[in-house]
Amino acid sequence: MYTGSCLCGGVMYEVDGELEPIQVCHCSQCRKAQGSAFVTNIPVSTSAFRLLQGEGMLSSFESSPGKYRVFCKTCGSPIYSKRSDLPQALRLRAGTLDGELETRPIGHFYFGSRANWFQINDELPKFPAAYTPGKKS
């Protein structure tokens, strides 16, 4: 079981089960939404995610057709994103999880859109666009 929260602590959640590998996204929308060079996402089944408190504090923004970014409307912390065409999955923001994590990043995605001002020096696979299982660039 993993727990997480927003910056102000008003939104708290838990995730039951082991976490999938972290996906590091460099697309321009994620960079804008996070105010950073990239975002760290963890795919989570909606059945494994449980909101413990703060449902009324959550707001969402449809950043592109059918894609919603869910955040705390008090402190602004991004919690997860979800897509209408994948109702069984969330993309949890890894930075909102509490404590130590066993999972690690699997690769950089939308690397073709990365910020030119931040250098990536790791050996993870770098994909020009979305994650494609079994494909390395």
TrEMBL record:
Domain of life of the native organism: Bacteria
SUPFAM superfamilies from the UniProt entry: Mss4-like (SSF51316)
Matches recorded under InterPro entries: CENP-V/GFA, Mss4-like_sf
GO molecular function: carbon-sulfur lyase activity; metal ion binding
UniProt KW keywords: Lyase, Metal-binding, Zinc
Boundaries of every CENP-V/GFA domain copy: 2-112
PANTHER family per record: CENP-V_GFA DOMAIN-CONTAINING PROTEIN-RELATED, GFA DOMAIN-CONTAINING PROTEIN
Family: Belongs to the Gfa family.
Name under which the protein is recorded: Aldehyde-activating protein
Top-level taxonomy: Bacteria, Pseudomonadati, Pseudomonadota, Gammaproteobacteria, Pseudomonadales
